[in-house]
Structures are given as structure tokens and as C-alpha cells.
Request: fold
Amino acid sequence: MKFLIIALTVIGVLLLFFIAYLLMISPSYRAREKMKKYKNAYFAHRGLHNERFAENSLGAFKNAVKFGYGIELDVRLSGDGELVVFHDSTANRVTGVDAKIKELKTEELKSLSLSGTGEGVPTFAEVLEAVDGKVPLLIEIKEEAGEKDVTPKLAEALKGYQGEYIIESFNPLSVRNIKKLLPGAVCGILSFNYHTQKEYRKPMYLMLELLLLNSVARPDFIAFRHEDSKNAALRLSKFFFGAPTLAWTVRSEEEETRAKKNGFEGIIFEGYLPKNN
Reply:
């Protein structure tokens, strides 16, 4: 009898922990209807780039518009506080210039050559003007830990934009803050199996991998690395809450088929042209 009581107590405690965990990872339901339009959406990762058009360039964005694909892009601040479209925190990989983006002024960034194409780093305002609502945007906020200046600049830039867009970030605080500044915007959390990379084997990244900080962000959707479709937190979010999901970054028709089979709805792609566009 004593053993049964102990066993039932342990089971009860574990059940309470499980319920608490589910409550912490639960997404928001406020934009569920809006997310339906992105169920079979395709977003060209950093634009439809190739040997002619560099990633996150105006050329790549115009190319995506030409083919009718949505556009995934990254925003961060230049040294003079302007929103620019660039993925990395440093310019080296794409331009060969050893400097941080936040140390270079907008005109300096414009003078750089993206992957040797001669195109410079575009401002976010230039991208909005070029796209002009022709295709939906998937905007990733690039704010490192402790940073919070990108979010209000983005909110201000989008207030007058009439085209469709959704917003995402790896940073739960960025997601929470942009939702406050743009109450009608659809905002999601980015994540993946952080433990697969040595530099991310820290408690904070474990919390992000387990989606525990959804309690802070309350995302409208979850964008997860498609190879990590078996992630328990992702599966629980879909099973219990029907969380809308996007897969990143899909690089072939085979990967696309696998991602959809594994329950992903929208596709963030690169390196091929999806047939079902």
C-alpha cells in the first residue's frame, strides 16, 4: 500500500510537471486564422539568389518577385542606426571586409560588393520599395543578447507598408517586443536542435531548443530546422496545440517532400525552384 501511494504521488508530480511544460511551450492562437494563408507558402531564403544575384541583395529579391516566391530576409542595424538587410553580424563572409555591420555606416555598406556581384548591402526601406507588396515577406530580426534597437526601427518601418509580411526571430524577447509594437503582426520563433553544435551546449540554448521561452514570446508560429523534425518540443506543440510550422532551410525537392511528410507547412527554401509554386 505504501509503495502504491509513493508511485501515485510520483506519477502525479510528473503529470503536473508535464502539464506545466505544455503550458510554457504553448503558442499563441491570436493569429491562427492569418497563418492559414501560409500553410503551403514558399519563401526564398535570403531572396532567390544564385551565381548572378547575391544573398540578401536587391537582385535576389527582385528575382524572387519575378518567380512569384515569398522572400525570407534578415534585418539588423548599421553603424549609423539604419535598418539594413544582412544576415551575418560581420561583413567578412559575403564581402571579404573584416568589420562588424554595426560598425559600418549605411553608405559604407552600400559601397561593399556582395559576393563579388557589385551590388551593395540594401537598406530595408529599399527592399520594401522594390517588393512593394508583390510577394509576402518573412522578416527575421537579428538582435543579439542584450540588444533591442532593431525591433522598434522595424516596427516603425512597417507601419506604412501595405504588403503582406510575417516576422520571426531566434530571440524570444524580440518576438515579444515586436508583437507589442505591431499588435496585428504575425510573429514566430526560430529554433533548432542547438545541442548538435558544441558552442550552443549551454543552459540558455537548451531552453530555446525545448521551446521553454515560448512562455515569453507566445509565438504565432514555429520555424524549425527541417532536419530536426523529431524534436520533442516541436512535436508536442503540433500535437497538443496544432502550432503552425515553417521548415528551414530546404535545399532540394527530396528535402521538401520529407519536410512536408514530417508535418511542416510552409517551406523556406534555397538552391532549387519548388515545383508547387
Q: What stands out?
A: The two ends are 63 Å apart (CA to CA). Residues 36-77+123-269 form a domain with the TIM Barrel fold (CATH 3.20.20.190). Strands lie at 42-45, 70-77, 83-85, 137-141, 165-169, 186-191, 221-225, 245-250, 266-269. DSSP finds twelve helices and nine strands in the chain.
